[in-house]
Amino acid sequence: MPANRCVSYIFGLLALFGSTAAFSEPVLIRTAFVVPVSNWAPMLEEKKDLARHWGNSYVMQAVRYQGTPLMITALANDQLEIASLAYSTLGLAIQNAGLEDLRIIADEFQDGTPGFYSNEFFVRKDSGINSIKDLKAKVLAINAIGSGADIGMRAALKKAGLEDKRDYTVIEAPFPTMPALLTEKKADLVTGVMPFSLSPVLKENAKVLFQEKDGLGRSQFAFWVMRKSFIDKNRAALVDFMEDVLRIERWYLDPKNHDEVAQIASRLLKVPADRFGWVFTKQDYYRDPNALPDMSALQHNVDTAAELGFFKPGIVVSKYADLNIVKEAAARLK
Questions:
Q1: Are 112 and 118 in contact (CB under 8 A)?
Q2: In 3-state terms, what secondary structure has residue 167?
Q3: Given CA atoms 289, 49, 284, 108 in this order, what sign does their dihedral have?
Q4: 237-246: string of b/e by CB count within 10 Å (b at 16+)?
Q5: Nearest alpha-carbon partner for 238 in 326, 122, 131, 330
Q6: How far apart are CA 49 and CA 32, in angstroms?
Q7: How many Cα atoms sit within 13 Å of 105 on the Cβ side?
Q8: What is the residue-averaged pLDDT of the chain?
Q9: pTM, rounded to two decimals
């Protein structure tokens, strides 16, 4: 082959392989959620027009789960890339599911941050219950035993000298049914989380006895986790992803966008938009604008859950964190 034709051939091959690389498949990032608005994933999809890298280096897919146990199973089976765990389930994922390569990568929301919302625990106004100690021999309703709200409740009761089974009974019920349980006297105390705490029935018939922060202080209630193997393979795409996540989340947190945010929440939850005056305000949970989890609070929360017997003590949460991805993404937006 003549030299000039050989050079042309080589450049042709380079162009072909370069083109193939340029059009390689974007990384699929399946991101779990339970409830829209409380969880970011479906909200991100609604505003993906703000993203710069979506469809190029990555594609995100919001996937709904009934709860974190199914997310843990999906992570273990490589059927999910990002799970939204609570501090109450981190220990279970590590110790029970054996996910030692789990890595905390970003904040989802925090409870009890000064000036922001904290989960509330309601009693009837006519119940005669005026302090936590008055809950002795009472029936307490929680969404799920071992949930973040449950541990916060138990921590507050323990501070008052009350122990599970010895001093009170816990039953499980979905959040929407809590007001009826209370007014029908099937439970003496019920749990309220946003937006269910805003129930007109609770406002009329109940009072707040205490908040989750009374038991736990500030809590890193929910956060994103991934497996290290996926991070190591796709770090560049994940930085692109988190850059877009921060850009979109900051749009939601900007008060000037609140009316459109309410419309999005209304569409996702099938509730009138005028009921979302609280969303992403100080009446809502705190969300870090740089998506950085409060690792000090998380360590305290995990230690509390272990003290209450939900998993073995000794988990050092910093060992299971990789915050460099979100830090690098935030640096791009400065």
A1: yes
A2: coil
A3: negative
A4: bbbbbbbbbb
A5: 326
A6: 20
A7: 28
A8: 91
A9: 0.86
Q: Which domains does the chain have, with CATH numbers?
A: 7-113+219-332 (3.40.190.10), 120-216 (3.40.190.10)
Cβ neighbours of residue 89 closer than 8 Å, sequence gap 6 or more:
68, 69, 72, 146
- Kindly report, residue by residue over 226-240, the tens digit of the pLDDT: 999 999 999 999 999
Q: Are 307 and 164 in contact (CB under 8 A)?
A: no
| Residues contacting residue 293 through CB under 8 Å, at least 6 positions apart | 104, 106, 107, 110, 220, 223, 321, 323
Query: What is the residue whose two structure tokens read 């209370």?
Result: 182
Q: What would the pLDDT profile of 126-161 be if each residue is shown by its tens digit?
A: 999 999 999 999 999 998 888 889 999 999 999 999
Give CA separation, 273 vs 33, 131, 231, 262, 283, in Å. 21, 36, 38, 5, 16
Q: What is the radius of gyration, based on Cα positions, of the chain? A: 23
Return the residue matching tokens 């009138």: 272
Of 91, 214, 218, nearest to 155 by C-alpha is 214
pLDDT digits (tens, 9 = 90+) for 187-206: 999 999 988 899 999 999 99
What number of CA atoms fall less than 13 Å from residue 202's CA on the CB side?
25
Residue that wins the pLDDT comparison between 209 and 21? 209
CA distance 208 to 71: 32
